[in-house]
Design a protein that fits this description.
211 residues; mainly beta; three-stranded antiparallel beta sheet; 13 strands
Length: 211
Amino acid sequence: MLIGASVIVGCSSEEGVSTATDNTASAHRIYQADVNDYISNFYGTTFVFTDSIETSDKDRDYIIRAVTVGTDTEARGYLVSDAADNEPVGFIDIDHANHVMKMVDMATEEMDVIEDLDEDPVFTEIKGNLITLVELGNAPEAQSRGWYVIVEVIVEIGDNFWGDIPGCGSTQVETDPLTLEQHCYKNCTIKKKRFWITWSSTDYQQVVDCP
């Protein structure tokens, strides 16, 4: 069952994985000073940062810290921070038992929910450990090529380790049969890349001036 205010027309790294966006939270920037409280409130219990790894894209350097919750023995969450000032960029929670991933943009608290992860070949291949994706992207061969392949999925690592990537097609023209008035728009998509993977996307129409 999808949760959130609006369903995304999109997919994970394989078609068929359910996604949704929760826009119910007010736009509120989570700062570095608030991170520990945010994660504690998110899980409702204690946590510790365990493994960490650094990487970069064309815009900035990142530190990724794994979060182990309570008495768990494997990481449940991942905090992505800007390496320059340690301010949080994003947070990911993985419910391994129910195959659900929640991805939070720390600039707005907007949350994307990815379901049916057990049907996603990339997620299955890495056994739910997102640090593995960073290690693959950091490998010298991947860095020199600007991409790597995992279960036949090409992952481009040159840009946007964490970001929303907009793109639009050509202008479409519709003519009202009664008034002959023209209306023009473009079909657009925002791809939400997390750990270089496009886990979800949002489709929308953008009204434009007619040519």
